[in-house]
Each structure stands twice: as C-alpha cells, then as structure tokens.
C-alpha cells in the first residue's frame, strides 16, 4: 500500500463507497421490527391474511338490519365478535369493530335520532370490506423498499412480526492522536477530542450499531495496529480519526498495510477533507479513515461512510437534497467544494475545517462542482449530515 494517490472525483467516491457496501452486504435474515427499521426489505412484503380480515366499521354509529325505525338491541366494540342481526334491529357499533352478519347499513351517530329505544336516520355501507386494502398472498411492497415506521405499521397490520432485512453493521470509532484530551478544556498544547463523542452518533443515524470509541491512541505504528485489531475484532466498520496524511506521526497507511487491508478509495477530490480513505480487510471488513480536523471528518462521513452503510443494509445510494443559494459560493478549482449552508441557502461563518460552530447550525453542505461557482439564486445539491 501507499499513502499517496490521485484523488477520486467526489461523486464517483460516493458511488464507489456505496457499491463496495452493497456488494459486501450480509445475508438477510428475519429481524424484529426495531432492528429492521432503517434497512431495506430483502424480499417482497406479502399479506398473510386479507386486510382487513373481516368487515370493519369506518364510523361510530348504529348498524341496522331490515326496515326502520330500528329498535336498539345491543352494542359491538372493537375486538368483539358480534352475533348476527335480525330485521328491525339496531346495534350500536364503534369505529374499527366487526360489522355483524346481516347488517345492511350504518347510521352515523351524528346523523341519528334516538327516541323511545328507537333509532332512525340515513344509513349507508359505512364499512371496509374484507380484502379492501389487500388480499391473502398479495405483494404489498417490493424487495428493496426502505423500511420506515409506516412500513413497519403495514407489516404489523398484514400479520407479520418480523421483516426480511440486512442487520445493522457493527461499527467502532478509533481516535488517533497524543494531543487529544477526553475531558476538560484544551490546555498545555493539547486539544479536547470532539470526534470520539460525535462520530458514533452519526454512525448510528446512518444505520450502524455503533459501540464506544477507542482512544485516543498513542502516535506510534504499534499502537495504531493494536487499536485497529481491537476494533475489527467485533466490528464490521471501523472509522479512524486523524493520521490520513503521511506526516511523521501519521501511521494509518502503514497500519493498514500491516494488517493486510487494501484501498477501496485513497483520497477524494473534495475540499475540505480530501485525505479521507476507505479500505477493506482480507475478511471483508471496512476501515474508513477520517481526517483529524472535525469538519473534514464529518465530510468524510457524509462522502464515504453514509453511502457505505446504506449499501451494507441493502439501501440505494442516499439521495442528495437541493438548496437554493442565497449568495455566491466560491468553487475550489478542480476539487468539489462542500460549503456549509443553512436552510435558506446562506453560507455560514466559522466554516474552517477545524471548526464545528458553523456545522452545528447547518442544513448541510452545498455541493459546488469542480471548476465551477455556486451563483446566488442557483439550485444546487445539498449533502446532509446523518442525524441532523
């Protein structure tokens, strides 16, 4: 392996990271709803009964049979199995309750007139017929559909308790850097680590099962190798912070070579954050190298890690949003420029690669392509941050 390479185009890097994850996605299994949310259906969702399974009242009212006015005789609530009705009978019925056999219509409560145990009013077939939404065996959703809370609701209504999906990849963050502190304020030439506390939450939002961060790890090759091996022992994805360049204390490239990992992507033509990387071990696990500057590290998560995790869960490449720029945003020559903007398209201050203040108020990063400028009023792509 080598620590230098021609940077990959940013859009190509996103697609490459996603494709690597999709090709390596694990075998699907039947997962409980809570574990399946955020993944994609690995097989079609099929109704295992008619939906609804029986005629269901759509309103609160009076089920009636025969000619009126109707004598009030009984009630049926949701969850009960009613007796068949007789001509001239009225049964009070709740929304969602099973419609009794023999019912010819329902009078809405607000349209009914009750006097001397008799009810009268306009009646209609105010109920859902069996199989109105779906019939037994019908395909409800195609394989590949993202599993959202409404999908879970549909699956439950259709009789399922689990969903066929790809499990969340286990992820760990390894923080490199002798200069980092894990508590208190920056002092004595050392700075407070922000990535160890922040990145795991982004990984969780992007669909991983993120464990606690490891580190800060001593700036030696031996310590880097040991930390990578520790993290890879129980993770499918390891995100490292710092060490992606080739300076005197940047040991990530040498550590990757030591453990036998191969590059998928080695640097990306994007500013900030170009020295990001993605590597794969011999047993198919992934290591994402995030730059040490906080905003650059977040850009690496947006550019490589979120697409990779989508692929690992069987999801499509995360789509980019759109924002209308309120002011001109400069380009960065041959590099894609990811510029912090708010929801109104204003470029934010405190946008240096070592800063987080702008990011904390941002809608995401406006994507300004190579050799271009983002003109005021232009609609441009917006790369959003997981969890924001």
From TrEMBL:
Pfam families according to UniProt: MoCF_biosynth, MoeA_N
Keyword Chaperone: no
GO molecular function: metal ion binding; molybdopterin molybdotransferase activity
E.C. number(s) listed in UniProt: 2.10.1.1
Gene3D superfamilies: MoaB/Mog-like domain (3.40.980.10), MoeA, C-terminal, domain IV (2.40.340.10), Molybdopterin biosynthesis moea protein, domain 2 (3.90.105.10), Molybdopterin biosynthesis moea protein, domain 3 (2.170.190.11)
Catalytic activities: adenylyl-molybdopterin + molybdate = Mo-molybdopterin + AMP + H(+)
Single biological process term from Gene Ontology: Mo-molybdopterin cofactor biosynthetic process
SUPFAM superfamilies per the UniProt record, alphabetical: MoeA N-terminal region -like, Molybdenum cofactor biosynthesis proteins
SMART domains registered for this protein in UniProt: MoCF_biosynth
GO CC term, one of those recorded: cytosol
Entry's family note: Belongs to the MoeA family.
Primary role: Catalyzes the insertion of molybdate into adenylated molybdopterin with the concomitant release of AMP.
Protein name: Molybdopterin molybdenumtransferase
């Amino acid at each position: 392996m080598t620590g230098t390479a021609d940077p990959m185009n940013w859009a190509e890097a996103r697609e490459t990271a996603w494709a690597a994850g999709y090709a390596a996605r694990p075998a699907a299994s039947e997962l409980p709803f809570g574990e399946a949310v955020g993944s994609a259906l690995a097989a079609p969702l099929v109704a295992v009964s008619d939906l609804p399974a029986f005629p269901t009242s759509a309103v609160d009212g009076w089920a009636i049979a025969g000619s009126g006015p109707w004598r009030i005789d009984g009630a049926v609530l949701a969850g009960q199995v009613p007796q068949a009705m007789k001509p001239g009978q009225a049964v009070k019925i709740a929304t969602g309750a099973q419609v009794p056999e023999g019912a010819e219509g329902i009078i809405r409560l607000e349209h009914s007139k009750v006097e001397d145990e008799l009810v009268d009013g306009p009646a209609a077939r105010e109920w859902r017929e069996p199989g109105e939404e779906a019939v037994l065996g019908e395909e409800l959703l195609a394989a590949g559909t993202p599993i959202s809370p409404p999908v879970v609701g549909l699956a439950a209504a259709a009789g399922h308790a689990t969903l066929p999906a790809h499990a969340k990849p286990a992820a760990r963050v390894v923080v490199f850097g002798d200069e980092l502190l894990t508590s208190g304020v920056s002092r004595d030439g050392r700075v407070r680590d922000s990535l160890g506390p922040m990145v795991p939450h982004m990984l969780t939002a992007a669909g991983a099962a993120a464990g606690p961060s490891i580190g800060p790890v001593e700036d030696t090759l031996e310590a880097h190798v040991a930390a990578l091996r520790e993290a890879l022992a129980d993770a499918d994805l390891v995100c490292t912070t710092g060490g992606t360049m080739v300076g005197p204390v940047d040991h990530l490239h040498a550590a990757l070579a030591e453990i036998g990992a191969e590059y998928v992507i080695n640097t990306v033509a994007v500013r900030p954050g170009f020295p990001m990387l993605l590597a794969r071990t011999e047993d198919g696990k992934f290591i994402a190298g995030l730059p040490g500057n906080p905003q650059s590290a977040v850009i690496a998560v947006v550019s490589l890690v979120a697409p990779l995790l989508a692929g690992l869960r069987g999801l499509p490449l995360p789509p980019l949003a759109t924002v209308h720029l309120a002011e001109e945003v400069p380009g960065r020559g041959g590099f894609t420029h990811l510029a912090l903007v708010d929801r109104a398209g204003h470029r934010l201050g405190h946008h240096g690669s070592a800063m987080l203040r702008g990011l904390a108020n941002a809608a995401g990063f406006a994507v300004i392509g190579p050799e271009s400028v983002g003109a005021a009023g232009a609609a441009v792509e917006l790369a959003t941050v997981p969890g924001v």
